[in-house]
Amino acid sequence: MAMIMQMTPFIPNLRKGQTQNLNFPNKHSSIRSCCSVGSSDLVVSQRLVQQFNPKIPVEEAVTPPSSWYTHPSFFHLELDRVFYKGWQAVGSTEQIKNPGDFFTGRLGDVEFVVCRDDSGNVHAFYNVCRHHASILASGSGQKSCFVCPYHGWTYGLNGTLLKATRISGMRDFNVNEFGLIPIKVATWGPFVLLNLKKENLSEKEVDSHNVAKEWLGSCSELLSTNGVDSSLSYLCRREYTIECNWKVFCDNYLDGGYHVPYAHKGLASGLNLDSYSITLFEKVSIQSCEGSSSEKSKENYDRLGRKAIYAFVYPNFMINRYGPWMDTNLVLPLGPNKCQVVFDYYLEPSLQDDTGFIEKSLQDSEKVQIEDILLCEGVQKGLQSPAYSVGRYAPKVEQAMHHFHCLLHENLTT
Ligand code: FES
Ligand SMILES: [Fe+2]
Prior knowledge:
alpha+beta, Rieske Iron-sulfur Protein, 2 domains
């Protein structure tokens, strides 16, 4: 699988006679920690973390308490420890296919912009103007530079401050120190990844092998050989805002098909649920299931194919590969009780013009999403009830969910 990785360089726009200062961080470009956890919050949330014991085997374990899914302090600890470190999927390479393409997004409190410059290099930056903190770029599209909508400061696609308006008379100002603040960016297959770790503010190149290892561990090969790669064509995006904690959506995904016969009767007829298998890797779990080839489920079989693979990449990214399709689900935390799920659909290129098949498949998929949203919002309401504190795992099917909770516990305690 082709991998393109690079650290976003800081390339100052040098004037004659100036020296190049490439050191990060410096007094003007250093960033403060994204952490929004106060010390009393920290005590509270760490006490909550300890209420789950990952050492207890799944057969005897109780689930994390409901406070993990509802408490604001716990949510802020998660942003700090889980989302502001390590590689995070944020989008598709399709969004930055051509020079000048860009897209923006938000992870926790962090606004970011990813773009491809004229030389084809991919960059990512904090999407914040260095003048008075205005959000710089919005949405996605094509640009030759980023012009701040507030007072017109202008930045190149490589982050350089190209123009600072009306600064005559300003003292002790070095334009080279006021470029956009870079974020470490990489791509793996068709996915764009960011790493917000504070110490990333260096010029060090991103090592492609390390990214694959850090993000996917030992299953990167397995995903490549099972068709999770760039050979499919990007088709479309669907976004859902859901009134539930981000982990409720993940848990629902990770129950080993437990809920499928009850909540997705249409989908269940296309799957041979007895063939369900679960494999755990370091930070990834893979659930797979064969398609049902009975005459009754012929249409479903065309969409779902012989075998479906559902890969969960900790903490919040799902890769679903079935038949000619791949869809990815990115679960973005918006608050203790709210998340957004972004679905990107990819399809075998030979089927790209088969509008009837595409429409029917997307409708079937949408039906499953709506069913899942209702389940997740119902669970969130239940988690808020004083009647519920912890639950149990069905050990034969919910190992991947237990694995997720153990990883999260480890992440929150280190
Ligand atoms: S805030 Fe961007 S130019 Fe003033
Ligand atoms: Fe579901």
